[in-house]
Amino acid sequence: MIRFEHVSKRYADGTSAVDDLSFEVAEGELVTLVGPSGCGKTTTMKMVNRLVEPTSGRVLVEGRDVAGVDPVQLRRRIGYVIQQVGLFPHRTVLDNTATVPQLLGTGRARARARAAELLELVGLDPSVHGPRYPEQLSGGQRQRVGVARALAADPPVLLMDEPFGAVDPVVRERLQNEFLALQSRVRKTVLFVTHDIEEAVRLGDRIAVYGQGRIEQFDAPATVLGAPATEYVAGFVGADRGLKRLAVTPLARVDLEHPAVFQVGDRLPGGAEGPAVVLDGAGQPYGWIPAEEVRLGGEVRDRVRRMDARVPLGSPLKQALALMLRHDAGWIAVVDPEDGDRFAGVLTPARLHRALRRSVGAQEPTAGAGSARPGSAPGAAGAEDPGRG
Ligand SMILES: Nc1ncnc2c1ncn2[C@@H]1O[C@H](COP(=O)(O)OP(=O)(O)OP(=O)(O)O)[C@@H](O)[C@H]1O
C-alpha cells in the first residue's frame, strides 16, 4: 500500500536525512516509525504526501510512484494529522471537520452530517463540541478533531506525525486507546511517527526503529522487545523491555491453569484439593475458596470469598498482572469474550512468566548483537512443560 524503494533524502544544505530506505506498509496495517529526534522520521512521512521529494529512490502509494501523481490529487487520498492540529481558528469544530469533504464537492448539508458522525466516532458530542471554536476545546479534544478531520474524506492512507505528542500522559493513553479502537473499525493504512517507544509498541502492528537516517529493525512489537536486532535497538527500547513486553503479549488459552470449579449452590466434596473457583449461574466468575477450606468440605456458599475481577482472553498480560496486583491475588480469573464472558481458567504469576517466555522463545534470536544467546531464552527448556497444562 505504501512502499519505499531505496529512498534517500539529502536536503539542500547537505543534511542527509534518510539513507537508502526500503520498507512496506501493507493495506490496513499500522506501522509506527520510532527513533530519537532528528533521525529522519518526519522526512520519511512527508515523502509519502510529497511535502518532501526524495533525492533518489521511489515512494509508491497504492502501487503508483507518487512522483507521477499530482500532489493535490495525492493528498486527497492521504489524511494527515500533526501535533499542532492546524484547525482553522475562526471555524467551528463541525465546520473544521466538514471542510475537506466540502472541498471535494460534497454538499454542505451532507458534509456536515458526515462531520457530526466523525466527531462521534472520535468520542466528541457533535451537539456539544460541534458548535465550539477550537480554542474552546482541551488539547486532547483538539487532537480528536484533528483525527476526525483527517478521516473526513475517507482516505485509505493516514499519516500521523506525533499526533498525541502535546497532551499529558493520561489523556495521551486514552487517545491511543480510542485510536486503536477506531482503527480496528476503519482499518486505514497508517504511518505513525513517534519518539516514544511505549506509544510505538502499543499502537504499531509493526515498528520501524530508526537509527540515524536508517531503519535498524522493522518487526512486530513483541519481536523488537523480545529480540532486538542490534545493541542500538536494545538500548533504545530500554532495559525494561521485558516489562514492556507485558503490554504487547496477549493472554492466550494455553497460558491458563484449570483449578477445581464449583457453582454457588454446590456442596464441596470433603478432601478435595483446592483452591477452587466459584462460578455464578451464568458460568461467570463469582468468587473463590482457599485450599484449606476446600479440603474441609461443606457448602460452597458458606465458604466462598467474593471476587468477580476478571480479564478477557486476548487482553495484554499487563492488564492481567495489574488486576492481580490490585486484588492482591495469586491468580486472576480469565473469561472468554467469544463465549459470553464465561470462565475459561485462571492466570497465575508462574503462567504469566511462562507466557512471556513463550513469546520470546518463538522469536529469539534474530540478528547477532554480541550478547545474543543462540537457541533460547534463559531457562526456556527448563522444568515447565511449555505446552498445554
Ligand atoms: N528542510 C530541511 N532542511 C535541512 N535539513 C532538514 C530539513 N528538514 C529536516 N532536516 C534535517 O533532517 C534530519 C531529519 O529530520 P526529521 O524532521 O525528518 O527528523 P525526525 O526524526 O522527524 O525528528 P523529530 O523527532 O525531532 O521531529 C534532521 O537532521 C533535520 O535537521
UniProtKB/TrEMBL annotation:
Keywords: ATP-binding, CBS domain, Nucleotide-binding, Transport. Residues 2-237 form the ABC transporter domain. It holds the Pfam family ABC_tran. Coiled coil: none annotated. One of its GO terms (molecular function) is ATP binding. Residues 359-389 are annotated as: Disordered. SMART domains: AAA. Gene3D superfamilies: P-loop containing nucleotide triphosphate hydrolases. Residues 367-389 have a biased composition (Low complexity). Residues 304-364 form the CBS domain. InterPro entries: AAA+_ATPase, ABC_transporter-like_ATP-bd, ABC_transporter-like_CS, CBS_dom, CBS_dom_sf, P-loop_NTPase. It comes from the Bacteria. Belongs to the ABC transporter superfamily. This is ABC transporter ATP-binding protein. It comes from Streptomyces sanyensis.
